[in-house]
Write a structure and sequence with these properties.
By secondary structure, this protein is of the alpha/beta class. It has a 5-stranded mixed sheet with strand order 4-3-5-12-6. The protein starts with a helix and ends with a helix. It has 12 helices and 12 strands. The chain folds into 3 domains: about 90 residues, Orthogonal Bundle (Arc Repressor Mutant, subunit A), CATH 1.10.10; about 100 residues, Periplasmic binding protein-like II (D-Maltodextrin-Binding Protein, domain 2), CATH 3.40.190; about 100 residues, D-Maltodextrin-Binding Protein, domain 2.
Length: about 300
């Protein structure tokens, strides 16, 4: 009996292991199906077959997804390494034709990144690779290295720390924060000085320590009247209030499509920061992933470098 079980395990279909790998990475059946570009019933059916072969539950349900059993935690890392080696070997011997590919590429970025970069990136890719699919996700910083290593994410964009020698970084551009108000704001159009700032009331968006520090250094923290989590709330609020907000300069262009606003720089209060793209170095061996890296980095850097 043991000999038969071991023989069955030795002949497990590679596609079943790919399903196990995807569910282990995503911790969610639906996201695993999206990752594999198959339906959820296909993933569920594959897991059922694996449970019979491995005599294990494999994954237990939990709020928001599934969690692996001890057996899966034991075997999944080795399975992932083996699948990655197979994938890399096949990719290295292959070619990539963007005009024919229907591959899905995933980028991790913030909501401000989506507003700033996605429209331009989508238009560009739609022209040269019309069947390509693009997916944007927001991966917590603590999980980003793992997501890049396992190919759950192809590229990460943003203000990113050094992630180690296994990762490649491309500097995209530097930018500053500008003070933005609705066009109707009573102080709109005036040259903004340190003294005039005391007459503004502010809204803060997301978590940007640089902006928090800037406001605190000027003694303006008590004038923060509103905090919101997402940039999509900003246009409506600016249009219907006398609040001001510090925004990355790259957001001014997409914001202008949603209303009429005034943006001002305060030279003595500049806070510059760098935007970068990061990928796992192994992805350079994948012709498709490398092509995508070149398209993203060159397009974004070219679009923003040299702008005022």
């Amino acid at each position: 009996m043991n000999r038969r079980v071991n023989n069955d395990r030795a002949h497990i279909d590679l596609s079943l292991l790919e399903v196990l790998d995807a569910v282990y990475i995503e911790r969610n059946i639906g996201r695993a199906a999206l990752r594999l570009d198959v339906s959820q019933p296909v993933v569920s059916s594959a897991l059922t077959r694996l449970r019979l072969l491995l005599k294990d539950q494999l994954f237990r349900r939990r709020p928001g997804g599934v969690e692996p059993t001890e057996l899966v935690n034991l075997i999944a890392p080795a399975i992932h390494r083996s699948l990655s080696e197979i994938h890399d070997t096949l990719q290295e011997t292959g070619t990539f034709a963007p005009e024919q590919s229907d591959r899905t590429f995933t980028v991790s970025m913030s909501d401000s990144g989506e507003l700033s970069f996605l429209p331009t990136l989508h238009r560009h890719l739609a022209t040269i690779a019309p069947n390509l699919r693009l997916r944007s996700v927001k991966i917590p910083l603590g999980e980003l290295a793992s997501a890049l290593e396992t190919n759950a994410v192809n590229i990460a964009l943003g203000q990113l720390p050094d992630m180690g020698v296994e990762f490649e970084r491309a500097h995209l551009f530097d930018q500053d924060y500008v003070l933005v108000t609705g066009e109707h704001h009573p102080l709109a159009g005036r040259a903004v000085t340190r003294e005039l700032l005391t007459q503004f009331e502010f809204m803060l968006v997301g978590r940007f320590p640089d902006v928090e520090q800037l406001i605190a250094e000027q003694g303006l923290t008590s004038q923060v009247r509103l905090r919101v989590a997402h940039y999509l709330a900003v246009p409506m609020i600016l249009s219907t209030s006398n609040l001001a907000v510090w925004l990355p300069r790259s957001l001014i262009e997409p914001l202008a499509l949603l209303g009429r606003y005034r943006a001002s720089s305060v030279a003595t209060l500049e806070r510059n920061f760098s935007l970068s793209a990061v990928r796992h170095r192994r992805s350079a061996r994948d012709p498709g992933a490398h092509w995508f890296w070149q398209q993203v980095t060159q397009l974004i850097a070219g679009h923003y470098q040299g702008r005022d």
